[in-house]
Structure formats: structure tokens, C-alpha cells
Amino acid sequence: MLHKKQPYFQEWQLATNTLAYNFAKKYFGIVQIPEWVSDEIGGVCCIADYFFDVNDMADFLRYEYTRKSMFEYYEYALKCHENKESPINIKAWRQLKK
Q1: How far apart are CA 11 and CA 17, in angstroms?
Q2: Tens of pLDDT along 34-69?
Q3: I need a surface site. Which of 13, 21, 73, 79 has the fewest CB within 10 A?
Q4: SS3 68
Q5: Is-contact 31 65, C-beta < 8 A?
Q6: Contact 97, 89 (CB under 8 A)
Q7: CA nearest to 70, candidates 19, 78, 44, 16
Q8: Which run of H or of E encompasses 42?
Q9: Handedness of CA 12, 17, 22, 27 (dihedral sign)
Q10: 61-80 residue pLDDT tens
Q11: What is the pLDDT of residue 8?
Q12: CA 61, CA 73: separation in Å to the nearest integer?
């Protein structure tokens, strides 16, 4: 495997797993190794039967969402997807809720 021979891939994987780990700890109060769908680090992560892509996890942390507001957005985004609509992004949604 190419990525194991190149240290910048290992650094990226470590940083991405650390982000997912800290996300799970903050919003779910659990300490666990992230479960990446199809073992694709940096793709979609499953935490306690919820699914998050790495960009959403980073944005929830970046914009300092509370646990409650993170779950409110998650439910909002699910409803949008059920109705075949695109949800507004996490940053914009946070600003609308202020």
C-alpha cells in the first residue's frame, strides 16, 4: 500500500482520526475509535448509529455547535434529504439560528 510508505498520508490519517475521536467525545460523550464506512478514513464516520462526513464534523467543531444544536441541524439536514432538497450549510444555519 502506497499510503503506509509515505509519512504525510500517515499524518493525515492520524489527524483525521483525531478529529473524529474528539467529535465523538464532545457530542456523544463516548471515547471510541472512529468507525469509518468502508474503512475509508476521511469519508463518512459512524458514531452511535449516526453518520457524519469529515467536513461536517470539522464544521460542528469549528463553529462551536452545542450538542443540542448539532442534533437540531442533523435532523434538519435529514428532512431536507428526505424531501430531495439541499440543506443550507452548517455555517449559514448556525448564523440563522442566532
Answers
A1: 10
A2: 799 999 999 999 998 899 999 999 999 999 999 999
A3: 79
A4: helix
A5: no
A6: no
A7: 78
A8: none
A9: positive
A10: 999 999 999 999 999 999 99
A11: 84
A12: 13
> 91: part of which helix (H) or strand (E)?
helix 90-97
Contacts of 30 (CB under 8 A, 6+ apart): 24, 47, 48
The amino acid occupying position 44 is V
Helix pair angle (67-82, 7-28), 10° resolution: 100
Q: Return the pLDDT at 9.
A: 85
The mean pLDDT value for 28-34 works out to: 80
pLDDT on residue 98: 67
Residue spans of the domains in the chain: they are: 2-97
Q: How far is CA 86 from the centre of its chain?
A: 17
* Unique residue bearing C-alpha cell 439560528: 97
pTM of the predicted structure, to 2 decimals:
0.86
CA end-to-end span of the chain, whole Å?
47
